[in-house]
Fold this protein.
Amino acid sequence: MPTSTRPDLLLPAEPSQRALARELYALVARLPIISPHGHVDPALLAEDQPFPDPAQLLIVPDHYLTRMLFSQGVLPAELGVPTRDGTPVQTDGRRIWRRFAEHWHLFRGTPSRLWLEQTFTEVFGVDTRLSPQTADEVYDALAARLAEPDFRPRALFERFNIEVLATTESPLDDLGRHAKLAADGWGGPGGRVVTTFRPDNVVDLEFGDWAANVDRLGEITGEDTGTYAGYLAALRSRREAFIAAGATSSDHGHLTARTVDLGADAAALFDRARRGRAEPGDTEAFQAHMLLEFARMSLDDGLVMQLHPGAVRNHNRWLYARHGRDVGGDVPQVTEYVHALAPLLDAYGNDPRLRVVLYTLDEDTFTRELAPLAGGYAALLLGAPWWFLDSPEVLRRFRETVTETAGFYNTAGFVDDTRAFCSIPVRHDVARRIDAGFLARLVAEHRLPMDEAAETIVDLAYRLPKKVFKFGEFS
Ligand SMILES: [Zn+2]
């Protein structure tokens, strides 16, 4: 799905580099999409029902959008964001859309505007510029498209040319959607839609009902999760089930990057926590320890580990109290990697059988910490700029700050990390364009011959993520 309405979007403005960038971008514009990390609801593809109205599809679930309006005084309820206690919110898609369009100017210069505009034009073929005056016209045009069979999830998946899409599930998920996908020839090992093992809700002691979650983990697996040994056995068992559902990676969302091997103390900590007597510091220590346990499990079962530290969850307490998690109330914090990861790297960092993909919300660490680590340990690779950093500016700065020390081949390829299914091709397209511009500059400065730049951009867009996340071999 290459861009047609703005062919030079995001390519360098300088003419000689732009010409080179066009050539490089053309090599990858139509390549299949590898999406190894994201949060699309697998039910979408399992059930293949028509999408709801444009507001429910594009605005309500997108916390990048609702938080910006909230920062300017528009309440999430006015935009249809559900409440925890069931207090009614706006459900009329057209009203939500109009309210949003009144504030469209807030997104000038943001990646959200870019993604949404590209989604309108490239995915839906709607070229009318959004404004308060055109809100209804755009809404009606999008709604008409959503009613067509070609805009069902599976049809779009084909049109987007997605080769593989990974969703994210907790160990407590029964993977029923993935079973349905497998039955339809869409899922399972080597399938087009696979899952990812995300155990945060049974590893983070402060994650809501941790104890109840661990009980449930025991029920699902038939292991005694009253004991630490049983808990580990239960996690291993769920990983096997996830692998059978096509998973090739796990994902760990921690407050910090800290790792530690607690040894025999781990069981004592677990027992305390199970009795509701966790002590200050236990939450972080247990998560830090579990990363070593998960690394050991990975050595056995081959799951790639993704580590996503640095988000202070639910920083906006009011928002959390009213609307719960994942609605835009999270904020990044300073994240330290060099000392935090040392215990894990001491134990397994030089073992090429282990693969850890590191992400950050702290851009300062790219040059100082992450590139030197990934450039020096066999097990480490750098994940693409994520969440608050997934703008064209940071994608460009990522290449500028990590390539000198880590090169291209210690990076893991682009991840869209999105809940918004319709934005997937747009986001990958943005990354491909930025890489084309970066490589064009290397060619223009006589630092890289064109044929090697051409090979590199195909590697970055397609071969590398496929290899890193074990979706196939590097050819
Ligand atoms: Zn994610």
In short: The chain has a mean pLDDT of 96. The domain at 51-150 is CATH 1.10.2020.10 (uronate isomerase, domain 2, chain A). The pocket of zinc ion is lined by residues 37, 39, 417 (CB under 6 Å). The first helix runs from residue 15 to 28.
